[in-house]
Write a structure and sequence with these properties.
85 residues; mainly alpha; 0% strand; plasmid; transmembrane helix; membrane
Length: 85
Amino acid sequence: MKVSLFKIDFAVVFFDALLAAGVLLAIILLGTSLLDTWCAKTRGVVAVALGGLLTGLFAAQNEWMKAMLSLFVTVTIIISLRQRI
């Protein structure tokens, strides 16, 4: 029973880490795509806001919040990749 509980905990930690990596990728893609269009002050505000989202990911125990963050990551990556093509 402890082994199955450990596997569940490992899966939760793994998917949280995967989502955090996705948020970091979204921050990098958003920052590089907006690099030429926004001034440095606005980019700084966006970076702080996205960093707050990343911090909220680790603080959030709510599955709904994690789902919204994963949706944000997906949309940001799709938009950034479409701008590059």
